[in-house]
What we know:
Number of helices: 15
Strand content: 5-15%
Mean pLDDT: 94
Radius of gyration: 21 Å
Structural class: alpha/beta
Order of helices and strands: HHEHEHEHEHEEHEHEHHHHEEEHHEEH
Number of strands: 13
Low-confidence stretches: 470-479
Helix content: 25-40%
Strand order of the largest sheet: 1-3-2-4-6-5-12-13-9-7-8
Shape: globular
Largest sheet: 11 strands, mixed
Amino acid sequence: MQPYELTLAAAAEEIRTRRLSPVELVDSVLDRIARTEPSLQAYVTVTAERARASARAAERATAPGTPGASSHGPLRGIPVALKDLIDVAGVATTASSRVRADHPVAAADSTVAARLAEAGTALVGKTHTHEFAYGLTTPQTGNAWDPDRVAGGSSGGSAVAVAAAAAIFALGTDTGGSIRVPAALNGVVGLKPTYGLVPRHGVTSLSWSLDHVGPLTRTVEDAALVMSVLAGHDPRDPASLPTPPGVEYRPLPGADLTGVRVGVPRNYYFEHVDPEVELAVRGAVKQLEALGATLVEVEIPMTRYVQATQWGLMVPEATAYHERTLRSAPEQYGADIRVLLEAGALMSAGDYLRAQRARTLMRQAWLRMLDEVDVIAAPTVPLTAVRTGQEVVVWPDGTSESVSDAYVRLSAPADITGVPALSVPVGRDAAGMPIGMQLLGRPLAEAMVLRVGHAYEEAVPARGHAPVTAPACGPGGAL
Length: 479
């Protein structure tokens, strides 16, 4: 096994026991990036020299005889990629947009970048996003399992980098599903934390009342390790929550779910879902039951208002954020983004306030529903990665919807209500494309969501990394 193939937890153990140096790990990942980028284009910027300098510093910090060498945290020396909305001092934040083509480098780290740097990580690069995170496909980037299919978005670059073993872990943002959608489409783990648990200071906003920052990783355990570093109050983020006392995110070993109540939706989440996706997710739910969980049917409340509320909040907030540039240089935006920003300018204050009211009522109804169960298990997205250029999906009953609406439909409720949601891979369809199941929990119940996801993962291990095709991997193309 090559170093770049290691999970975060495994790499941390190799570094702790000095069987692997941070420099070796970073060099392995940088070599992997060089080999995969021609096919995938996950990265906006590769920060190779910065990563090597961080790796050398981590190696010195963990050297025998160095004070505190035996007590370093698990992220020290680990290569990380950050979605290019997240400020890093000395690196430009482009948001994958021409609007920021000449944007100056960031003067300071975002809160999450600073916390990762303090933990000793090595930044290997900034990853592509759908322009300003305003989309669900990330068109610059190819899916890690098939570059001719969409990567998902808007954190597509981060998900692809992790799936292709071109980063040990990455950070993304999630406003309507932008961590979980690409996680599901690329067969990796993606966690959208409780709203306000991870600070957003220094992160470019799409919609401030819906934006979340969270990890994309290869395993649930890895996501828990990253959350232990990211979570915590920051007064510079007005939505930041007080630091929860004594939370242990890392799940205990083992797959026993005795006493855990898993909600299975009788409506909404399994409507207009590809049969292969439904079969895989229902099979995963049965696996949770086999591990000791009790299955409880639940009725998802206020489903008819989900998409209107999501768009009613996001569109005007995004337009307000971009108001000055939209007036001065509208031609610099991609056509798909510009039309959404211009649409936001036409929405009334009454429309926005009605969406706010609907969100409050929806959140209250979800909290009542979650009183009856510990987690809800459902598909992350209703279909796997479509081919690049496909814009519409037609369902067996003859109805159709846009691909973007389909991808956001099942992920939006967790953003509107602010509850934690974890996407875990649960198989692949006949074309070999990954399928994801999401686990949704009560606010600040990340530990429970991670426990259930980890138990499933322990019982049904993932199949490894995406087989990036030639020429990126050289002769044969396989890992």
